[in-house]
Design goal:
Elements (H helix, E strand, L loop, with lengths): L3 H10 L6 H22 L30 H5 L5 E2 L2 E2 L6
Antiparallel strand pairs: 1-2
């Protein structure tokens, strides 16, 4: 069972303001969620193969093919904002 104090502590760690009247409600809700997880611990999974995705999905990879890239002038032809052969972007700092 999660206590009101634990909820307030987690809120403090996450820098989330949790009012005292909300803390008890959150404690009850979080305890209910943890109870659902404890029910999963009771399921016998001894002969179940581990899965990484519930659907039978297989990644499709292709071989990398080396090709010539576009000429720099052609790439920069789509922008008015260029400087010394590069895209000119706004300063971040």
């Amino acid at each position: 069972m999660i206590t009101k104090e634990e909820v307030e502590h987690v809120g403090w760690l996450a820098r989330i303001e949790i009012h005292e009247n909300e803390a008890q409600d959150y404690a009850e809700k979080l305890s209910a969620v943890l109870e659902y997880f404890s029910q999963l611990d009771e399921v016998n999974t001894e002969n179940v193969e581990p899965t990484y995705h519930v659907a039978d999905i297989v990644n499709v990879f292709r071989d990398d093919v080396i090709r010539l890239s576009l000429p720099q002038e052609e790439v920069l032809s789509n922008t008015d904002k260029k400087q010394e052969g590069n895209f000119l972007a706004p300063r971040i700092m």
